Prior knowledge:
Layout: E1 2-6, H1 11-27, E2 34-40, H2 43-51, E3 55-59, H3 70-98, E4 102-105, H4 112-120, E5 125-129, H5 136-141, E6 147-150, E7 165-167, H6 181-187, E8 196-200, H7 206-215, H8 217-223, E9 225-229, H9 235-245, H10 248-251, E10 254-257, H11 262-271, E11 274-277, H12 281-290, E12 294-296, H13 306-315, E13 320-322, H14 330-341, H15 344-357, H16 362-375
Amino acid sequence: MKILFSGGGTAGHILPIIALTRELRRISPENYFQFFYIGPRDEFSKILLSQEGIKVKGIVTGKIRRYLGPKEIFQNIIDVLIKIPIGFFQSFFHIFFLSPDVIFSKGGYGSFTSVLAGKILQVPIFLHESDIVPGLANRILSKFSMEIFVSFPIRKTEHFPLKKMIYVGNPVRKEILEGSKEKAKEALELSGEKPVVLILGGSQGAQRINDKILEILPDLLVEFEIIHQCGEQNYEQVKADKSVMIGENLAKYYHLFSFLKEEELKYAYAAADLIVSRAGSGSIFEIAALGKPSILIPLPESAQNHQLRNAYAYAEKGAALVMEEINFTPHFFLEKLKYLIYFPDQMKKMQQAAKEFAKPQAAKIIAEYIKEYLSF
C-alpha cells in the first residue's frame, strides 16, 4: 500500500509525519506500506524524511500573504498566477504516476496543490490539524477530506465540520520520550549541580529569545544549568557573545546547541526540570507527553496568532505559564524561573496537568485508523 504525505515544509509539519511513519512500520513490520512525500523543496525536510525511507518529491509552492504591503501584493500575484499553477501540475503528474492508496496531509501552503490534485484523481484524503486555528490551506482542503484528525479538543478547534473531526492530539516521536536523566548527564556533559532549564527558540523568532537570554546569562547561570537551542543562523553570534559574557567558573553550566538532533533532544528533555519554548503544537505536545513544567513564549507572527491560542488552551489546564513576547523582559523572566523552580508544589501541579493533557498515543491511533481503512 502506498501512502503519500504532504505538508508545508516546516519542522511542525515534518516531525509528525516521521512519528506516524514509524508507528505504521511498528504495526506492519512486514513492509506492508511504501511511503512518499510531496512538498516544498526544502533540504532540511528532505534529509529528515529520506532518513526514514520516505521518497521525497519536491514541487514549486506558493502561498497567500494576508499582511498586505506593496511587496506582499506583488508576491501574492506571482504565487497565484505562476507558482501555485506550476505546483498543481507537478503534483498532478507525480500523483497520477505514483497512484497512492491514500494521501495524509499535515496542512500548510505546501500541501495545497498536492491535496487538490489528489482529490481530482479521486485519492482518499485524510488531514491532520496541529493548531486550534487552522490555516487557510486546511480550511479549504477540509472540504475534500474524509476525516480530519485534530490536536486540540473538538469544542476548541475552529472552522472544521464537527462530523469530520477526530480528536487524537499531535503525533509525537516515541523515541524522544525515552531519555534517561543519568545518561543525559554524561551525553550532554551536565554538572548536575543545579536545576536544569531547557530553552528552545524554535525555527522562527529564536533570535529575540536569544537576545533576552544573553542579557541575563550570568544571572541565569548563578541559579541554573542551561541547555540552549539557539537556531542554526544564530549559533555563531550567540557563541561569540556568551564567551565575552561569562567566565570559566560559569561556562560549565551553559550548553549551547544550534539544533538539537533527535538523540540530543531526547537527553535534553530527560535532563530538564523546566522547559522554555515557543508555542508550536509540536513543542507543546512533546512537553506534555514528557510531563514537564514549561514557560511558553508564543511567536507573535504566527499565522492567525495560532501559537498564542495554542499556549493559552494548554495553560488553562495549569500545565504551563504563558509569557507573551511584549512581557518577556529579562528580569521578569528570571524571577518567573526562580518562582517555579523553588516552589516544588507548583512544579508538581504543572507536571500532573501536563500528563493529563498529553496524547502520547496520537501517532499510533492514526496509524491504526489508516491501516484499518486500507485493509478493507
